[in-house]
Amino acid sequence: MTPQQFRDARTKLGLSARQLGLVLGFGADPGRIVRAYEAGDYAVSGPVRLGMRYLLKHGLDREARVTAGIEQPRKAKGELVSAP
Question: Where are the domains positioned within the chain?
């Protein structure tokens, strides 16, 4: 996967660099890591490539949308929930 393909996939998913980094589980400063992939500073590794293919094929499930901050977590009756 080339840097341009990576960027195009993120755009198709409608995610910011930070949101995609959170969904893919990048630790500290997830947006910076995604931008580095897009700039070609890092080669897109096999696990990241597979994650992107999965997201493109299946979309984001609810858990991924909550992780990315797109949706708020659901509260169970009487439960306090904090966003990630």
Answer: 3-67
